[in-house]
Amino acid sequence: MRIIFLGGAETVTGSKFLVETETSRVLVDCGLFQGYKWLRERNWQAPPLDISNLDAIILSHAHLDHSGYIPLLYKHGFRGPVYTHHATRALCHILLPDSGHIQEEDARFYARHKLSKHAHPEPLYDRATAEASMALFEAVNFAETVTVGDIKFRLQEAGHILGAASIILEAEGKRIGFSGDVGRPDDIFMRPPQPLPELDLLLLESTYGNRRHDKQDPFEQLADVVNTTAQKGGTLLIPSFAVGRAQTVQHMLTTLMNDERIALMPVYLDSPMAIDVSDIYCRYTDYHRLSHDQCRAMCDKIKFTRSVDESKALEDQRFPHIIIAGSGMATGGRILHHLKRLLSDHRTTVLFTGYQAGGTRGAKMQQGVESVKIHGQWIPNRARIEVLHGLSGHGDYVDLEQWLQQSELSEHTPIQLIHGDPDALEGMRDHLRRTTSFDVNIAGYRNILRI
Q1: pTM of the shown model
Q2: What is the pLDDT of residues 18-41, one digit of tens each?
Q3: Which of 83, 153, 281, 373 has minimal CB crowding within 10 Å?
Q4: How many domains in the chain?
């Protein structure tokens, strides 16, 4: 058996791991490259495998850096099954068509402004292709064994987001673990990751391989921000990612209101995608910490604004209120319209709840820039900018080490580090080599590993 690292190696994006035996071939994860242009350009290259000989895709979770390349393989002719958890399939039904829509919008923008070297720029794939690719998805339960040729695999809970799984794959007398993205033991929303069984090889994510999570109480932080903003008579804007983060913030706000730690005030979720995702989280209460009643409260106390007209009507609010809207890094979405009209008001607070990539509006606001360009206009930045720490869905390097120690791995189990930026990969390798006996190395892009 051999593994070919086609993505998620030497970078934190584009996860794709091709597993080949004498008779079978499966692709574990099928993600888009995101971020830097030189990485995104890989999405436009010819598919890095022979689609005609690919038997199946096994998907760990719904985030696009793990799932977003599936419609492109479909576009090129792949018609095999995509195995994943029920909740992941439901989330992909939202995320993949939206990704196709964004690809179409980008192509139209480049054509209109003549920003492409092509006379008629095309999308990577469109919404219709993404929707069609959903017919390939076959949902499986955690711990259910599935057979593809001479390969067997099962999914086990990994925390992180709804439906996220580690993949345990067996073939030719060997057992390999693919960690997927691994959640935190003390996550507000998701249950802790399930310990791993004994393995002959582990591919381990390293997103937080060189960082520790802030230990401040995020509920206390959020309460302070909300109360300070309300006392000023201002608006709290929360740029948020639609999957996971928006639902966590909803739950935190409703909990604080129920506990009378913040004043009762209108809270608006101004994101059709996040609204749909919240419905899915409420549907799958068996797979996270919240009870059905807590999920219903999370949705019932928040005012959903689906339509554009409902979103525009928020401009008429004159009393303290809270708006949660995408995107999480303020790179697009409805949050831009709210920032455009409220960023220059000193009573406004903008609260970021996740990592802000370099060069994004979110990163620039955190750096204290005097103005931000939105829809071609420079908007003065007079708002109070805050960061809510402690909400990451990834375990840090100590969390991951403890997870490994709780697992049934032998002390010399070989580990290949994947899905991390170079500094994070180096940090994770150094930490595990210093504190454990595992045989730890960093996977290389396009490398082939035989076991």
Answers
A1: 0.91
A2: 999 999 999 999 999 987 888 989
A3: 373
A4: 2
